[in-house]
Specification:
The complex is a heterodimer of chains A (162) and B (421). Chain A has 162 residues and is α+β, with helices and mostly antiparallel strands. Chain A has a 6-stranded mixed beta sheet with strand order 2-1-6-5-4-3. Chain B folds into 2 domains: 107 residues, Rieske [2Fe-2S] iron-sulphur domain (Rieske Iron-sulfur Protein, 3-layer Sandwich), CATH 2.102.10.10; 241 residues, Alpha-Beta Complex (Naphthalene 1,2-dioxygenase Alpha Subunit, Chain A, domain 1). Chain B has 12 helices and 19 strands. In chain B, the strands form 5 sheets. In chain B, strands 12-18-17-16-15-14-13 form a 7-stranded antiparallel beta sheet, with helices on both faces. In chain B, strands 5-4-3-6 form a 4-stranded antiparallel beta sheet, with no helix packed on it. A 3-stranded antiparallel beta sheet of chain B has the order 2-11-10, with no helix packed on it. The longest helix of chain B has 17 residues. The two termini of chain B are 29 Å apart. The chains are: A alpha+beta (162), B alpha+beta (421).
């Protein structure tokens, strides 16, 4: 691919990135979550009905590091919700394009399981990441992550990012 | 009845009796009883009410249709060749199949996928395959008339681009139904500019559908549950606010004006609000800016239009919410977020950024849904049998302070009349 690495090398690097990303979200330490993004990053979660129709709304809609940090702060410090465990699985990573400018476009599927005290585990969301990565100081960062979910009906509340 | 088995008493007549204290108490069974739920569907959702079904912006041209609901009942909203809007039950007159499966679309006629009975966009039956049978055998009876077997048609009302439907053919006007106090803020949001749909959220809440109304008739919770509002200066106990109630008691507008920049939370309020913290700061406080664009003294109005409709004008993030009950213990909430035709790119993005407050992942939306889950669980699992609605004493109707539950009492005065409880 045009940045000098093979598609397979890039895919392994992205899989490694996604595993770390999922581990941070699963740990519940949401204030660490913004470090996976660039300063100018776009992060959005939206239903597939919106994505297919070109509608811009986001369940979560962040433009830039400030808004990512504010979301993390609000969830960690001000928001009331029932305690829960989250488990993310990310799979089927595919590299779509690596441009000479160093930007890598990739997709991956994700599933989010949610467990509340005294309740059975539910499948809260299934969807796909549509990503644009850039390389900074040797590692990858997300310049854009659009999470498009097939499971259109959210069960009660999606508290944490996916 | 076999001998020795006592006859079951009539549930409504004996077990389900409103507490003697009256409107300051709400019995748990209005949130849990299947019998009460069936009566609500019949008398409220299928009764003398206007139910939100669509925005006209979702039906932009002749042939546009939308799948929607009146209470739990699926309907289809269509715009015919002449531009007239129709609402019909989403149920084939033949075997009862739900005809329309797509959320939104365009069509020239409605065709049941099962046996291809075909209807025009007003719901009139136009064709039945093999109606005369085949080689003089079978087919529909000679006296079968197409015009007696159309889709069930609902009454339709529109105002400022918002479409309502009613199963009651003798429904009063929408304007008469909501009354002038509610219409004023409705018209401030739907101010004549054409709407532009920005997208949808859908979520379930494991709670009785009436709790959504109660939550938006309960201004007391806003400064206590929603720490985000308080910490980041959107709501200060004591700022200008009102809880408006119409003459019937069933509709409401929760309204507040954003405090001026720099107005701080006073020390008495801080002590009352445990969630307040002095040292939280946003990195991007501009997302909470209020761009003045409405003819209204309020920067926030949350309207509850009985029985299935919410109009959200929270600063500049706008949306309508449709309640679809699914039995007494769960409802589906469908959110349609919108702006206006002619919004600048920057204004649209401002609305989208501010959208982080609302919806099932919104800073406020998460908390409302979680609180309702907790209340339903309390009703289902604990031994007490009623809840307490005593803030503000026995006052009812419109109030200009927020430490009150007057609007909830007004709603239940109306509800008890309609429900004979």
């Amino acid at each position: 691919m045009s940045d000098g690495r093979s598609r397979q090398e890039l895919r392994l690097e992205i899989e490694e990135f996604n595993s770390e990303y999922a581990a941070v979200l699963d740990s519940g330490n949401i204030e660490e979550w913004p470090r996976f993004f660039t300063e100018d990053a776009i992060y959005r979660i939206t239903g597939r009905e919106n994505a297919d129709a070109g509608l811009p709304v986001g369940l979560v809609y962040c433009e830039g590091m400030g808004m990512l940090r504010d979301r993390a702060l609000a969830i960690a410090k001000t928001t009331m919700f029932a305690p829960r465990y989250l488990l993310h699985q990310v799979s089927n990573a595919r590299v779509l394009e690596a441009s000479v400018s160093g930007e890598i476009r990739a997709v991956a599927n994700y599933t989010l399981f949610e467990t509340l005290v005294d309740e059975k585990t539910i499948l809260q969301q299934v969807g796909r990441y549509h990503d644009r990565f850039v390389r900074r100081a040797g590692g990858l960062l997300l310049r854009e992550r659009i999470c498009v979910y097939d499971s259109l009906v959210v069960d009660t509340a999606l508290v944490f990012p996916v | 009845m076999p001998d020795g088995v006592p006859e079951r008493p009539n549930e409504i007549a004996t077990d389900l009796r409103w507490p003697a204290e009256g409107l300051s108490r709400i019995p748990d069974w209005i949130y849990t009883s299947e019998e009460i739920y069936r009566r609500e569907v019949e008398r409220i959702f299928h009764g003398f009410t206007w139910n939100f079904v669509a925005l006209e912006a979702e039906l932009p041209e002749p042939g546009s249709f939308k799948r929607s609901f009146v209470g739990p009942t699926p309907v289809v909203v269509t715009r015919d060749r002449e531009g007239v809007i129709h609402v019909v039950e989403n149920r084939c007159a033949h075997r009862g199949a739900e005809l329309c499966r797509d959320a939104l679309g365009r069509a020239t006629e409605i065709i049941c996928p099962y046996h291809q009975w075909t209807y025009d966009l007003a719901g009139n039956l136009t064709a039945v395959p093999f109606r005369r049978g085949l080689q003089n055998q079978g087919g529909m009876p000679k006296d079968f008339r197409l015009d007696e077997h159309g889709l069930r048609k609902l009454n339709v009302a529109t105002r400022r681009g918002v479409v309502f439907a009613s199963f009651d053919p003798a429904m009063e006007s929408f304007e008469g139904y909501v009354g002038p106090e509610i219409l004023r803020d409705f018209d401030a949001t739907f101010d004549g500019r054409k709407l532009k749909v920005l997208g949808y959220y859908r979520n379930t809440v494991p709670a009785n559908w009436k709790m959504y109304h109660e939550n938006l008739k309960d201004p007391y919770h806003a400064t206590l549950l929603h720490a985000f509002l308080v910490n980041f200066g959107l709501l200060v106990a004591g700022n200008k606010s009102a809880m408006v109630v119409d003459a019937s008691g069933r509709h409401g507008t929760m309204a507040s004006a954003k405090p001026p920049e720099g107005q701080n939370v006073d020390s008495t309020s801080k002590k009352e609000m445990r969630a307040f913290s002095d040292n939280l700061r946003l990195n991007e406080p501009r997302f909470l800016d209020y761009m003045r664009e409405f003819e209204s003294p309020w920067s926030v109005t949350m309207q509850t239009i009985w029985p299935n409709f919410i109009v959200q004008r929270e600063l500049n993030t706008l949306g309508v919410r449709q309640i679809v009950p699914r039995g007494p213990r769960e409802f589906l909430m469908i959110w349609t977020m919108f702006g206006y035709e002619g919004d600048s790119e920057e204004m649209t993005r401002h609305r989208l950024r501010q959208g982080n407050l609302m919806g099932p992942a919104g800073f406020l939306g998460i908390e409302d849904n979680e609180a309702m889950r907790f209340v339903q669980q309390g009703m289902e699992r604990s031994r007490s049998e009623q809840s307490l609605i005593a803030l503000g004493g026995s006052e009812e109707g419109t109030t200009e302070h927020i430490i009150t539950e007057a609007a909830i009492r007004s709603l239940y005065r109306h509800y008890r009349e309609v429900m004979d409880l």
